[in-house]
Each structure stands twice: as C-alpha cells, then as structure tokens.
Amino acid sequence: IFGFRLYKLKKKRQGFEGERILELSENQKKVIDHKDLICFSKIGFFPKAKYQHEESDLGNDYHILVYCIKGYGKLELNNISYDIKTGEFFFVPKHTPYKYYADSKNPWNIYWFNFTGNSADGLLSLYYESTGSYRGYLKYNEERIQLFDVIFKNLKKGYSKSILMLLNMSLLHFLSSLVLNIRSKPHFKDKNQDIVNAAIEFMNLNLHQSLPLTSIVQQVNVSVSHFSALFKTKTGISPLDYYNQLKMQKACEYLEFTDMLVKEIAFKLGIEDAQYFSRLFSRKIGMSPNSYRKAVYRS
Question: How far is CA 200 from each of CA 30, 66, 185, 234, rounded to the nearest angstrom?
Fold first, then answer.
C-alpha cells in the first residue's frame, strides 16, 4: 500500500545517465496529504539533461520547483521567455501553461520537485508579490543540495508515514528559505512581506517559549486583526498554526535524533502539558510522538 517508485537509471528511453526520480503512489499521497502542509508528490535529479523538455498547455494541479546547479536551460511562462543559468531556480505555479527545457550545447543539471498544499500556495504568492517574478538566484549551498540527497537516502530506509511527513516538513523549510532569502535583496520593497518574514523569524527564535499572538504582533508593530489577516493571506494558515507547525517540525527532530522523553521535548518547546503536546503532535503529524519515534527507529 505504501509502495513507491525509485529509479536510478543508467540507460532508459528519454532518460539521463544517473538520473533519480521518486514518485509517490496515490495511496501514499492520501496518507500524508494535509491541506495546510506542503506535500510533495514527485522529486528528481537530472544530470546533464540534454534534450530534457517539459511543457503543458493547461498547467498542472500542483506547483513545480526547478533548481539549476550547473549548465543552462530555458523557461517559458506567462508568454515570457527566460534564460536559466547556473544557480537560478524557478517556480511553475499550478494551473499555469509552461514550457522548460535544457540548452542543447550546455544542458543543465537540475533538482526538481512537484508539491501542493495551502502553505505552498501562500509561499508562492508571497514570493511573486515580493519579486514580481517566479524565478530567482540561489547561491550554491551544500546543505540545500544535501536536502535532496537526504530525501532519497531516507526513502531507501523505508517509506513510513512518519518519514514522509518529516520530509514534507524539510521541503517546507527549504521553500521558506527561498522566500526569506529575498529579504536581503535590494529590490525587496514589500512592507507586508517584511512583516510576515519578521514574524516567522521571531517564531523560529522562540520555539522554546509559548508565545501568545500579542507577543508576535508586538514585534511587527501592527494590530492583531491586521496581522492575522495579512499572515493568512501570505502563508495560507494562521500565525499560531504556523508557529505550532514549526514546533512540531522541531519535535520530530528531537524524537529522531535525541533520547529525550516526550514530556521533556514538550517542555523544551514551551508546552508544559505533555498530554496537550501529544494531542497537538498527533493532529499535525498524524500519529503520536511515541509512534513516530518507533516508526523512525524501525526504518
């Protein structure tokens, strides 16, 4: 029921030497689907992808991210053509006609994934509103590239719900880093985005506390009602839901990489009631903390 298809191919019709593709089955998608989270459905790496070509006149029911780490390619989106070079990435929003393909002389090496979810919708909207484009430049960072390799390696260990949920959260972190990265760019002018990004940064710095909404709002100097509406518009979920989502992502890390008791993890994340923490974890992740830890260890 949880089967997946993982290919590492040397010879395949219309394939590329050394390519890797992972596509979740329909059953897997249903098991890990959560409308408020980012959920990936397909992920891959194409090295020296000569003659690689993807297009759709109607678009898809999911978003696409393509990150070029070497070489060149071309993107056609919204009737505009873009040259894509080493270090650049681009999004293809859902339901949008598109075409992208590798340069014939110096074909690109690309990592890519397809994803859905309200958080994904919000992050893409936020990025476009901030830059006026669906593409950008991302300086090569080994840790970012390792994220893709970690996904493939983890799925070789197993394909439990807990692992898939953790990988979805890793992708959320990756996408968030793209959006937060533009804060330092000279063209960044969107005050509304600045408010949301400042709030998210404050949340990340205070995962060990139990912040009320008023404390978050004080950091950005706007009214509670305005901030709540703005945050949900930009991210797709409420501020406190986002804050709890960050806490549960950190909880997954503690459960997998430490021997802390559940009540100790709860306390470390600013939640004094361990039973409430367990209920929150189960609601966000889809299983209890202890079940998550056992599933990870079995993998």
Answer: 29, 25, 18, 12
Q: Show the domains of the chain with their CATH numbers.
A: 4-183 (2.60.120.280), 190-298 (1.10.10.60)
The 10s digit of each residue's pLDDT in 33-45 is: 555 567 778 888 8
CB atoms near residue 15 (< 10 Å): 15
CA distances, 164 to each of 111, 133, 154, 159 (Å): 18, 30, 9, 7
Between the CA of residue 264 and those of 121, 179, 278, what are the distances in Å? 34, 32, 12
C-alpha Rg value of the chain to the nearest Å: 20
| Tens-place pLDDT, residues 248-278 | 989 988 998 899 999 999 999 999 999 999 9
φ and ψ of 140, to 5 deg: -55, 130
Furthest C-alpha separation in the chain: 60
Q: Are 81 and 135 in contact (CB under 8 A)?
A: no
pLDDT one-digit tens code per residue, 56-82 = 998 999 999 999 989 999 999 988 889
pTM for the predicted model, two decimal places: 0.59
C-alpha–C-alpha distance, residues 24 and 6, integer Å: 9
CA distance 118 to 175: 13
